[in-house]
Structure formats: structure tokens, C-alpha cells
């Protein structure tokens, strides 16, 4: 099966009508260019409010089946597209999630994924806003295949990608919101961006599974004025199963890029590099631990004294 | 703690005296240039005999405390270097391993690691020769820190790197033997090399832990004549904890490259990007499974119906 994927990267536009019109136009264009699946950035309907912890943004949270989902469902049906992004989900009073939603081409909700790994550092106070997801790592079945939807910070965790791949994902998707601190020097920016691209392409390679990412772009000020804001760095991409770019990363604002992935490439890559065949699952138990505090003592020349602490 | 690391990449030289003299000279030079730890390629004392399955190479296997270890111990003591490579270990009749050995600066054996993930594909018939390791993923304590020694094929498995990092490794080390099929086009070669560099640098990034790799280089014929042989691609490197090159990859034959890694960089990187803080260990159980054969059914719009199958 082949699927044609669109990466849509938009800058936050404070005027709601303009913002929505821009997104709608982007989806229309993606469809015109052949896309069957469109990935939008994280929290696409909101400014990146996590730059500082404050009560006001909770007013923007909405139940899963709220106006954002309704809008996405209408677009999905209108354009015949599977659409993926995240919303600020109000599950109940005091319980909020950063929730990925997957809309089917008929406007139904194919499934959701609640962001499992939650970051928290200056400029990204997400632990304040979002309860860690409780749905685990379960791909979502759609008309364009089984989608391993993950969100932003998840992209740094090989465990998340692996779990989705083991569950049969045909594609890993990362709606995301990451950018530079404008006060950082160019060398730091390049290193951060390169690390971000590298770790995600490595998920494609280690799992023989394509990866697609759509990031926010444009500058967003910190409303508290405590930090210099975030220059979201765009650079979304589509990688094939060997880490090769099918859509190369770019820092173009309001970008629509379209390319095709083919399950056959995944099948052939996994046959050539059969990592899934060789995993030592009986020796991975410690992946379920936080850390192993007692490293083995230094051993002398009288082998065997190596402790078997798999 | 800082440690000065040497990557030594040598081509196989059929004349034993020449080969050993070359290795000894390389270690001496590494020490002269300040190295405290030297990483040699996989199976450095042997041709890459796994190109075809045949009984003859078993004659080269030796007990752990055999002539290879004795030679490495002498060099380690003479040069005051911690030395890491792998040997073809004969554990008993019919039981052989590809075993990494770590020699301390006083010539004692600091520890061993038996290659856990064993490849097997045309040109690399390692499952024929090597029993998968049974010592798990345990770093080895040395005078230059806790070494997370892994071997070649292990480099494609994020699980292996993570387990070593969780056990407190200060550095991940990969003695390795990987190369191009000379019959493959340039584009395939570039893609393979890039994937190999990317997946290993991603271990540094995902774990905030430096990674060093030493690969074989030079051409080795397939003695059976069935394949066009292997052009080992060199390109060993040292990566800092953000995936930045401290020793950049190069395809120079018989290369000695030296650079320093600093635990402070690791500490700071992990503070800036605290992935270990945020792992969802309670949701990783399925990492211990081979695959999840029953993907959840496609769900409709009546949320919540998402199965919780973490």
C-alpha cells in the first residue's frame, strides 16, 4: 500500500478567522496535490501557551468532542483527508491532556492518543498543564494504514517509536512544537536542530518504519515577558524506512510539502536489516526500571566473575 | 572526570607480524597523543571470517585467557592504556562467542561483554559462528570510567544503548565490522553509511551519553568467492552527548584519532534535555514482546473506545 502524506507547517496567527482560513487553504492545497493524509503541528488551534504557567489558558481547553474536533471532522470530510494534530483536551475539571486526534476521511474520529511523555523546562511548562497520557502506545487504524501517532517530546524516546512499530504501525507521526531560544547562539541552535532531526530519523532506521513530523514555525512571544519567547523552527520532514528524506526539512514558514511512502520499501528494508528478528527480549527487563543504581563492582582477571544481571 | 579516547581503525593485514606491529605502533601513537582509552575494531586479530560459513575458522577461536588476551594485556600495561576490542572466544567445544574484552592499564582484565545481538545475512553469517551473549547489558568498571561496551550489530538496537545508560555507563563503545558490498551503487552505500552514523549518534542523543565507534577498514575478499567481498567503511567517530562529533567520521585507512570527553558535558546535557526523568516505565511492558499481533480494531466516533493495551 502506498500513501501520500502532507506535512503542513503553519505559524500562529492571532486573528482566529485568518488562522483558520490559512489552515483550511493549506489542507485544500495538500489534497489538490494528492495528499491522503495531512499532519498538522501540535496544538494547531492555539498559541503555544505553555511558555509560562498561568491559569488563563485552561479556559481554552475543550472536551474531546468539542469545536476543534468538529472543525477537523468537517475539513477531513470536505477534503477527503485523514487529518492528524493535537488538541488541548479537558477530560474533566482539573484533568487536561495534550491529545492527538485522528480524523477519518468521512469525518469520524478514527482514534486518539494522549501524549505520554510530558516535557517541563523553562519555556515549555507542560507538566503544569497536561496530565501524562493513560492510553499507552496504540496505533490508530485508518483508511491510509495503521498510524503510530506520537506527540513532540515523545520523539526523544526510542521506546515510544519501538512500541508503535511492534504494534504494527505503518508510519510514525509526530505533531510537534519545538523551537529555539532567540537568545541562544547560532551554534547551539544548529546542534539542537541536528539532534532533533537525528533522533527522529533514527526511529525510522531502528524500526524500518517511515517517520513524518510537522512542527510549528514562526516566533511566539512569552506573554509573561520572562523569557525571550520561542522561534519555532519548522523543519518537518518525511523519512523513509532507512532514514532517507522523502520530504527534506526546511525552515519555510507556512509550508505544505507532499510525498508518498510505500509499505513495500518498509518490507524490503526490514528484510535487508532484520532488527526485529534479533531483539533480545528476554534480556530487556531492565528497560522497565528507572535506573540501575548498583553497578557491578570492578572485576579482576579471574574470569568468570561478571554478574549476570540482565 | 575527563577521559581521552582514541579511535584506531586498521585494515586487515594477512602477514601476522606486520599486522601486530601495526596495531602496536597505533597504540603507542595513541598513547603519545594523550589517549587513556583505545578502541580497536571488532575481531581485530582475525580476518572477517564470517563472510561465509565454514568449519576452518573455528580453529582460530581461543579460550578467553588465550594468546589474544595475553597480547592485549601486555600492550595495555606497556602503554598504560585501557584497551577495548573483541575476540573469537571458545567457551567450550561447540560454544563460541564474539566477546568484547576490556583490559585495564595494569594488564588485568577489567571485564567482558559477549555480543548480544547477532546478525546473519549474506556476507555476515554470524549466527553460524557465535552463540548470542548470556551476560546481559552490564557496563564494565575501569580506571577511565564505567564503559558501556557493545558490539557491532548491537548498534542498531536502541534497547542496548538505553540499558547501558540506565546502568550508569559514562561512554558507549562499539567495536564494529561493517562495510559495503562493492557491487552496490554509490547511492546505496551513502544511504547505508548515513543510517549507521545516524542511529549511533541517536543513542548519544536519546541517552545524553557519549558514543565512540571503531570500525574495520579496507577490502576483504570472500574466500569462498561467492560474494564480491566487503569494503569495510571505517568512519569511526566519537560523539558527545548531544550527538555532536568530537572525532568526525572519516574513511582514512589505518587511522588514529584522539579526543576528550567530559562527564560534565553529559551532566549538563541531561539537565537540559532530561529524558531519563520522563520515561514512562510503567507503559513499556510490551518492549519485552516480539510483536503485538492483534492491533486494536478501528474505532468509531463514540469515544471512549480506545483499548488500553499498554
Task: Quickly list its features.
6-stranded mixed β-sheet; Nitrilase/N-carbamoyl-D-aminoacid amidohydrolase; alpha/beta; 7 helices; 310 residues; homodimer; 15 strands
How does this structure look, described?
- The structure is a homodimer of 310-residue chains.
- Chain A has 310 residues and is α/β, with parallel strands linked by helices.
- The first copy, chain A, has a single domain (2-281), classed as 4-Layer Sandwich (Nitrilase/N-carbamoyl-D-aminoacid amidohydrolase).
- The first copy, chain A, is built from 7 helices and 15 strands.
- In chain A, the strands form 3 sheets. The first copy, chain A, has a 6-stranded mixed sheet with strand order 5-4-3-2-1-15. Chain A has a 6-stranded mixed sheet with strand order 6-7-8-10-13-14, covered by helices on one side. In chain A, strands 9-12-11 form a 3-stranded antiparallel sheet, with helices on one face.
- In chain A, a hairpin with a 2-residue loop joins strand 3 and strand 4 (95-103).
- In chain A, helix 4 runs parallel beside helix 5 (186-207).
- The longest helix of chain A has 22 residues, at 186-207.
- The first copy, chain A, is globular and about 50 Å long.
- Chain A starts with a strand and ends in a 32-residue tail after the last helix.
- Residues 297-306 of chain A have low confidence and may be disordered.
- At the A-B interface, strand 5, strand 6, helix 4, helix 5 and helix 7 of A face strand 5, strand 6, helix 4, helix 5 and helix 7 of B.
Amino acid at each position: 500500500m502506498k500513501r501520500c502524506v502532507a506535512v503542513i507547517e503553519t505559524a500562529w496567527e492571532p486573528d482566529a478567522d485568518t488562522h483558520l482560513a490559512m489552515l483550511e487553504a493549506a489542507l485544500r492545497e495538500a489534497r489538490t496535490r494528492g495528499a491522503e493524509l495531512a499532519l498538522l503541528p501540535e496544538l494547531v488551534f492555539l498559541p503555544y501557551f505553555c511558555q509560562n504557567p498561568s491559569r488563563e489558558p485552561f479556559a481554552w481547553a475543550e472536551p474531546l468532542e468539542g469545536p476543534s474536533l468538529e472543525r477537523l471532522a468537517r475539513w477531513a470530510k470536505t477534503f477527503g483527508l485523514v487529518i492528524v494534530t493535537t488538541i488541548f483536551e479537558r477530560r474533566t475539571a482539573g484533568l487536561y491532556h495534550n491529545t492527538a486526534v485522528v480524523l477519518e476521511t468521512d469525518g469520524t474520529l478514527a482514534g486518539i492518543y494522549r501524549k505520554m511523555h510530558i516535557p517541563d523546562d523553562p519555556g515549555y511548562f507542560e507538566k503544569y498543564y497536561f496530565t501524562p497520557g493513560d492510553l499507552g502506545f496504540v496505533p490508530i487504524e485508518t483508511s491510509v494504514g495503521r498510524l503510530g501517532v506520537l506527540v513532540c517530546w515523545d520523539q526523544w524516546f526510542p521506546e515510544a517509536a519501538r512500541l508503535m512499530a511492534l504494534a504494527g504501525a505503518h508510519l510514525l507521526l509526530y505533531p510537534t512544537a519545538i523551537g529555539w531560544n532567540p537568545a541562544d547562539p547560532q551554534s547551539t541552535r544548529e546542534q539542537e536542530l541536528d539532534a532533533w532531526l537525528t533522533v527522529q530519523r533514527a526511529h525510522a532506521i531502528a524500526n524500518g518504519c517511515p517517520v513524518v513530523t510537522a512542527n510549528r514555525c514562526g516566533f511566539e512571544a512569552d506573554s509573561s515577558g520572562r523569557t525571550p519567547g520561542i522561534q519555532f523552527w519548522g523543519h518537518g520532514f518525511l523519512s523513509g524506512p532507512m532514514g532517507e528524506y522523502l520530504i527534506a526539512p526546511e525552515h519555510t514558514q507556512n509550508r505544505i510539502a507532499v510525498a508518498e511512502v510505500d509499505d513495500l520499501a518498509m518490507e524490503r528494508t526490514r528484510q535487508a536489516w532484520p532488527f526485529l528478528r534479533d531483539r533480545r527480549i528476554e534480556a530487556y527487563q531492565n528497560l522497565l526500571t528507572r535506573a540501575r543504581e548498583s553497578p557491578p563492582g570492578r572485576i579482576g582477571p579471574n574470569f568468570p566473575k561478571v554478574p549476570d544481571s540482565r
